[in-house]
Each structure stands twice: as structure tokens, then as C-alpha cells.
């Protein structure tokens, strides 16, 4: 799926507004689990290294339940930062209402990036 299709798919789930500031329309999206974290987990798993026997969670770069539609300005702010520090509690609740409808792991129930990452790899994992 290309990025334009992904954005319209995300807007059909969350609505047209930016899901961080909720003031303007979303014209791009962010990864809830930052791409660098996803890549780091993938690379660690590739190394056949005794220190890292345990597999880390792996998810696809553009896995739909890891994406959130936002405006350009909020996308810049989110770069390298924790969504739990960036998104207001009220807005997290709004987002979770939609995630619940779609059976996606809920952000507040996960509580942190690490747990959310783990929940996103297992679709059958109900909180
Ligand atoms: Zn915004």
C-alpha cells in the first residue's frame, strides 16, 4: 500500500484531524513505535549472537495498527520522542476509542512504548 492510500485508510479509522494536536487536518502519519526501534529489534534478531538469544518483537514498517494520522508540524515534533509524552491523556482516550473498534491494542492499556511494541506483534493478544 502506498503512503497516500495508507493515509486515507488511517483517516477512515481515526478521522481527518491530526491525532496529536487535533487542530488541523492530518496530511501525513507517524509510527507509534518509532521506525528506529523497529529496525533495531529486527537487526538484533538477524545477528546470531549469543548475547541476544531472546527474540525481540518485530513489526512491519507500515503496519496499520502502528500508524497514526498527524499534521506535518506534529510529525516533526514526534521524531525520536515518546508518544506517551507527546499526546495528551484526553487525546489518547480519543485515539483508543477508535483503536478499540478496530481491535488494535490500546495505547493507554499498554502504558508504554515497550509494552505496546510487544502487543503489536501479536494480533491475538487481548489486553
Ligand atoms: Zn498536529
Q: Helix count, per DSSP? A: 7
- Average per-residue pLDDT, rounded, comes to 88
Helix content: 40-55%
Distance between the termini: 28 Å
Q: What proportion strand? A: 5-15%
Order of helices and strands: HEHEHHHHH
- Name the shape in a single word: globular
Which class best fits the helix and strand makeup? Answer: mainly alpha
Radius of gyration: 15 Å
Ligand set: zinc ion
Beta-strand segment tally: 2
In short, what is this structure?
This protein has 127 residues and is mostly helical. It has seven helices and two strands. The chain has one domain.
Key features of this structure:
binds zinc ion; mainly alpha; 2 strands
Write the layout of secondary structure elements.
Layout: H1 3-14, E1 28-31, H2 35-46, E2 67-70, H3 72-78, H4 83-86, H5 89-101, H6 107-110, H7 113-121
Antiparallel strand pairs: 1-2
The structure holds zinc ion (ZN).
Structure report:
This protein is mainly alpha-helical. It has one domain. It is 48% helix and 6% strand. Strands 1-2 form a two-stranded antiparallel ribbon. It is globular and about 45 Å long. Bound molecules: zinc ion (ZN).
